[in-house]
Amino acid sequence: MEERKTLYSAIQPTNNLTIGNLIGAIKNWLNLQNDYDCYFAIANMHAITVRQVPAELRQKTLSMLALYLACGIDPEKCVLYVQSHVPAHAELCWVLNTFTYVGEMERMTQFKDKSLRHAENINMGLMDYPVLMAADILLYQTDVVPVGLDQRQHVEIARDVAQRFNNAFTPTFKVPEALYMKVGAKINDLQDPSKKMSKSAENPNGSIFLTDDRDTVIRKFKRAVTDSGSEIKYDPENKAGVSNLLSIYSAFTGKSVLEAEADFAGKGYGDFKLAVGEAVADRLTPIQNEQSKLLADKAYLEGVLRSGAERAAKTANKTLAKVYKKIGFYQL
Ligand code: ATP
Ligand code: LTN
Hints:
It contains 13 helices and five strands.
């Protein structure tokens, strides 16, 4: 049998996840877990690069795990774990820091954005974020990293750092490839369709959270910004709002954007927005029910995390040992 490729992804346990995260990340993982050796991490170490409320961070770690499981991520098929449970992440990050240039990090788009948004706390961790992410990826000899466009630069950095290290010594890390997803890969803000929908958006009406109940979902879609004119046509340049709603509808119904357009031919914006809201709510309700059921069984959730951390550490420690040897760390 052909050896399976390794896939790595992670998501931060901050705020509430949005349907952008569901479509851009979690939904893809469901398909991928059958074809790859998958590692999925809850990136709590990345999360603290902006201030978190400790009790909330702790609670969100479990509720995010329950959410993954409720969405259908199977802990038998993939390694599901919490980043801080595997110390090798912090350890490799330190080494990789010495192979990364300050100038490169200062140029990262996300760093620049977040520095503006968190001007009172531009900490070293925020700047080092891509290096920790490179450590995540490289520890597992990852072949592919499924990412939204926003993370493209970070995967490039992981590749550059891997190559730099490999060239300085001998091949140590596999150089990962980013795996981009097609339409539906990016969902934009309902109030400002020029921006991606984000957990931490200022206006909560622009984002649909996975915890939003049916009425809230429908209310937010009814208020979604549309464009001038009345045609329901996919045209991201000139009709950003409508195109975003069509992408969402397509992602939640499995129909193509063309089929979605056909569904709404001759209809008005009002009917269209309601239909998109209903399609989204219909998918979210069963996930929410399953998540609550799982959260009531803490022993089960902790078992999943313990086993995930053990399996992850086994692979990660192998890579870390190689790295320590190459750079000349005296080993006992
Ligand atoms: P934050 O607002 O805290 O920066 P975020 O909502 O942008 O968070 P991330 O934690 O940065 O989300 O991303 C988690 C995963 O979800 C990544 O794989 C990312 O590419 C994907 N993702 C996030 N937002 C969207 C979106 N609007 N459309 C598609 N994919 C998304
Ligand atoms: N930065 C990513 C989360 C993340 C990640 C990773 C994604 C942390 N480590 C490794 C892919 C691979 C985000 O916020 N989307």
